[in-house]
Amino acid sequence: xxxxxxxxxxxxxxxxxxxxxxxxxxxxxxxxxxxxxxxxxxxxxxxxxxxxxxxxxxxxxxxxxxxxxxxxxxxxxxxxxxxxxxxxxxxxxxxxxxxxxxxxxxxxxxxxxxxxxxxxxxxxxxxxxxxxxxxxxxxxxxxxxxxxxxxxxxxxxxxxxxxxxxxxxxxxxxxxxxxxxxxxxxxxxxxxxxxxxxxxxxxxxxxxxxxxxxxxxxxxxxxxxxxxxxxxxxxxxxxxxxxxxxxxxxxxxxxxxxxxxxxxxxxxxxxxxxxxxxxxxxxxxxxxx
Length: 289
Prior knowledge:
The chain is of the alpha/beta class. It is built from ten helices and 14 strands. The radius of gyration is 19 Å and the shape is globular. The termini are far apart. The relative contact order is 0.15.
C-alpha cells in the first residue's frame, strides 16, 4: 500500500523541480562518515540518495573517511591507536593500514554499493595522479598530512565520463611518502578547487546547536562573518571547531553553500538538497540564501 496518495507524490516531485534546475550540471561534494557509514540501513539510504542526484544531472563527488574501521583493523593487528587534538597519531606501520583500509576495503565497498544499485562509480584516492598533495602536519602526529595542493584533473576526468568519483582521503608528497588526511579537510579543499555548488558534510549530530545538549536549538543558517562570535560564546567549541573551520574554508574558496547534516536521518541528503525543509546547518558567505 502506498504511503502517500498519487497527488501528494506528484506535489513532492513538483516541489523538487526548482532545486533540480538549480543543481543541474553543478558539482556537489559529499563528505561521508560517522554513523551513516556504519549502519547498513543508513548506508543504503545514502547510496540511493547519491545515485538519484547523479541520475537527475547533478555531478556528485563522494569523499569518505573510515576512522572506526581503521581502529578496528589496527586493533586486530595489535597496533596501538592514539589520538592527539582529535587526530590519529600515525606511524609508519599505521599508515600502511590506513591506506589499505581507506583506499582498499572501504573505497571499493562504496563503489560496489553504488554499482549494485545501478549507478556508475570509480574509486580514487589522493595518490592517484597526485590528486591530494600533502606535507607532514607536525612531528607529533607522524604521517598525518597537511594538504598543500589539490589537482582536480582525475576527478574531472571521471565526472566527464559519467561516473561518480569515490575518493579515499590519503595523500602524498613529492618523495612518495603517504599521509593520512582528515576527511573534512580533504572535502573542503576538493570542493573549493572544483568550485562546487555545495559541500555536504554528514555528521552524527543534527547540525550546529546553540546548546550542545539540546538538538532543538539548531542554528539553521550561519554567515561566515558570524563564526568568530559563535566561537567566543562557546557555541562552536571542542571537536566542532575544526569541522566548522573546514566549512568556512570551503566558503572562502568559492563553494556557494556548505551544509552540516545529521547522517542518522535517512535520506538527509535529498531532504536538504531537493526540498524546502532544510534539516541541518547551512553556511553561507553573506545574505544570499
